[in-house]
Amino acid sequence: MSLTPFVRHVGKCAALPRANVDTDQIIPKQFLKRVERTGFGPALFHDWRFRPDGSANPDFELNQPEAAGATILIAGANFGCGSSREHAVWALAEYGFRAILAPSFADIFGANCGQNGVAPVRLSGDTIDELVRRCRAGHGAYRVSVDLEAQRVTDDAGLVAGFTMDPYRREMLLRGLDQIGLTLLEEPRIAAFEGGRGGGRA
Amino acid sequence: MTRAPRTLFDKVWDAHVVHRLPEGPALLYVDLHLVHEVTSPQAFDGLRRAGRKVRRPERTVATVDHNVPTGDRSLPLDDPIAATQLDALAVNARAFGVELFDLASPQQGIVHVIGPELGLTQPGMVVVCGDSHTSTHGAFGAFALGIGTSEVEHVLATQCLVMSKPLTMEARFTGRRSPGVTAKDLILALIGRIGTAGATGHVLEYTGEAIGALSMEERMTVCNMSIEAGARAGMIAPDETTFTYLEGRPRAPHNRDWGRSVAAWRQLASDPGAKYDRRVDLDVTAVGPQVTWGTSPGMVTDIKGYVPNPADFPTAEERQAVERALAYMALTPGTPLAGLPIERVFVGSCTNGRIEDLREAAQVARGRRVADGVRAMVVPGSQRVKAQGEREGLDRIFQEAGFEWRNAGCSLCLGMNADVLRRGERCASTSNRNFEGRQGAGGRTHLMSPAMAAAAAVAGRLVDVREWEVEFA
């Protein structure tokens, strides 16, 4: 599946500065029964967003009026830990997030982001703290630019933070490539590998 | 030319690199791809839309586990949405030529239980599955990792995974564990020590005499929870314990292939002097039964411990996380964990749903009664485990004690079927995650070993099973 390339994105921020946000929180299991890649956005952070009676929980960060329309999520360390469910990234993307900024990401979640045109951007804990402060002070007006080409996050008030990303993941995001199509171009090598190991056992 | 000493992981990795891509990652060959109903429908759909086939159907095995009812299995299922997902897998397996162990199959079970018990999982393999607990299979000296659905589609189409080589971390377990202390306690103690992101970006290799002394099933429990330490995978070098377990399993190599395979597997252990990027040591002698008190597996302590005080944590982020966790768990700092009343008990899951786990719980349950007001469930990890348990009379021991004896599946570990906690219920659970809402919205999970969970069922509260008269294996 080819994707919209991610080169540079300028957007409004929302902050969810909690550590170890797991994918069970991002998309609870009762919503994993769909057989499509779509339809998960309305259930994003379901148990935090909604009270047991189904009404919106006004205390939850993304339910604040200031967070409406945000496309960049500022998050805590080890974001996306736990279950491998890609549904978590589908839900974040469908809700409108193009980039997640955090001090660290769980491995599988990071890989899943790269497969869906969502940029997982690792910044230092201090930078994240500063972004959270600016986001809160901005009362819904705080925007940053995430430049994947230059590997830099900037805002209008002088913040400049460089980051690095696995070169392959960055390339996939920058070009919106169809990874399966690319790998299939290596078919002769795969076939030769299989032939070379006989039964194929290690 | 002498070659630099290599780790177990290095050897398995090197043997599977098809090609190194210009940007740095490798195209890694996959020997075994396990598939289940929740993370595969979108992948098969992607193949269909692109007109692609499953490249190696004979290396792909599917089963149903996450969604399946563990009570009445007669069709149609009560849950029509779950039924849609099960049907989708059946249709996809047929259309793409993939073997499926469905609800009616005597081999059906949790994907990480049936892979090993059928002998599909073997040393030196690369094993993937759209499930984070794929790390379980690393107990055999395989490189086994959980992947997302896009990667599932990629492996279906190409039999390869594109991946940058992870770092390595040695977790050396020394000393001898005391009676009543299980593999579950060892891995929980490690996660408590290094944290839930302690091994992010790394493949853990578990070494040391305390690991060598573990049975195959105990090793699976340890490797299963590698992901809870953030690791990409967990591995244990194959040895006689591994070979004895595998010999004669239906899908293990047979006859002349068996000897050849074992000879190759013996070469997999890390070379003396092999370098790991990081190392952590844990003396198991001092480890007691572990119980989690919070909403992350790293929030764990000894059963003789107390609910911690948020003020005692060093960073604002941790203090906030502990406060949130205690509010969710309805716990007050300073409360002893032993004595905490529980309403539910779950014995099962890919962590602790194998026959040895059920035997361990049955040792405690034998001749005792589940406390009034407690609902306790035993959910075997597979239908083969269930049948074995019934041959040994474990079903009678459990049922006479007041436990429910159910059919195989993931069940209350993640509550995708009807097995869920009600809001506010507190559960002693042998599963792997105590996340908020994991076992049901508002449910409160305490992770522990099968023996400890069974003891909690009988006492109606958390107790130190070592204080009971139980013959530990």
Concise synopsis of the structure shown:
The complex is a heterodimer of chains A (about 200) and B (about 475). Chain A is an alpha/beta fold.
Task: Itemize the secondary structure elements and their pairings.
The complex is a heterodimer of chains A (202) and B (473).
Chain A lengths: L7 E9 L6 H4 L19 H4 L22 E4 L11 H9 L3 E4 L4 H8 L4 E4 L2 H14 L4 E5 L4 E4 L4 E3 L4 H9 L3 H6 L2 H10 L6
Parallel strand pairs in A: 1-2, 2-3, 3-4
Antiparallel strand pairs in A: 1-5, 5-6, 6-7
Chain B lengths: L7 H7 L2 E4 L5 E4 L2 E4 L5 H10 L9 E4 L16 H17 L2 E3 L9 H7 L8 E4 L13 E4 L2 H10 L1 E4 L3 E8 L8 H12 L7 E6 L1 H4 L3 H9 L8 E3 L4 H7 L8 H11 L12 E6 L6 E3 L7 E3 L13 H14 L14 E5 H4 L2 H11 L9 E5 L3 H9 L2 H8 L2 E2 L20 E4 L14 E4 L2 H10 L14
Helix pairs in contact in B: 2-5, 6-8, 13-15, 13-16
Offer a few descriptive terms.
heterodimer; A: 202 residues; alpha/beta; Aconitase, domain 4; seven-stranded mixed sheet; B: 473 residues; Aconitase, domain 3; Aconitase, Domain 2; 19 strands; 32% helix
